[in-house]
Amino acid sequence: MSIFLVPALALAACNGEGEAPEVEDENLPDAGDEAEDGDVDDGDEESGDGSALQMGTGSTGGTYYALGQEMANVMNEHVDVDDFQVNAVATDASVENIARVSDQDLELGLTVHIPAIDALEGEGDFQGQVMDNFGFMGYVYPETNQIAILADEGIESVEDLEGMRVNIGPPGSASHAASTLILEAHDIGEDDFEAYEEGFGDGASMLQDGNVDATFGLLGLPATNIEELATQQDIDLLGIEDEALEDIEANSEYEHITIESDAYDFLEEDVEGIAAYAVLIGSTEDVDEDLGYEIVAGMYENAEDVSHAQGEHMTMENIMLGSEDLPLHPGAERYFEENDLLDQ
């Protein structure tokens, strides 16, 4: 069984067909994993000419948006292409970013690696629509499923959530899919609890106000929303039982992660969970090999300029994480090959 081991901020383990269909905005899934509720800004810069690209992030309350802004700043400072500019724009995160990159509406995007695999196969949220005109450009950070509860409420395990009010994340999001997977692995079906489908920010507020008993999220570690919630209420995190972990790993692309007790001040013991990879993807239609090469070089050779906590995972040692089963962008592949990174 492969295991992520994550102390507070450090990643301690290594290893998230045809023409793309037209994607209508109204058919895109709702906010995802790393996204929270907020106004969505599609951006107003012309893109597709190599000088004013758009990078899809998440909604304005989430990790992808804040981190994406800093990534765009680093690219704009260091990508060695005349008049290069990339704008980080708010979206509904992973699934929308993949769809809009495939539809040539975005040039770059952040996504969990699992829906990216689904897109290649026309599975999951993509419902038979194969989307394959994008490529992996680099690892960003580990996304960890975290299940927050109020302490001293008598909830000791995921199995105790049967019959309770549970926020599982927005429909179409990686959080929603992971939450459902975890609950089913503990023999809790969709009719066995009262489901709420909100982003983690709203879910944390609902937990604080006593309107839900637990809230799930696929988040960075540590997650700012959880840290903020812990200043308002005594909380804890639920772990996943060993048998359920084995079932999840056998039937999905998620991997076992250990959240060590020093990840949050309130934790008294390690918590077992599942994790995926957040990755950067690029269009193979609108980002040519040379531009893709320079984007990877400019971003990852200067990743230390990213001050966001999750930015410290963007190292050369980690750069290939999440690439398995995904096509490499031609420019990224050339960069990886020239720097002896392909065998990591």
UniProtKB/TrEMBL annotation:
Residues 19-48 have a biased composition (Acidic residues). Residues 16-57 are annotated as: Disordered. InterPro entries: TRAP_TAXI (IPR011852). CDD domains: PBP2_TAXI_TRAP. This is TRAP transporter substrate-binding protein. It comes from the Bacteria.
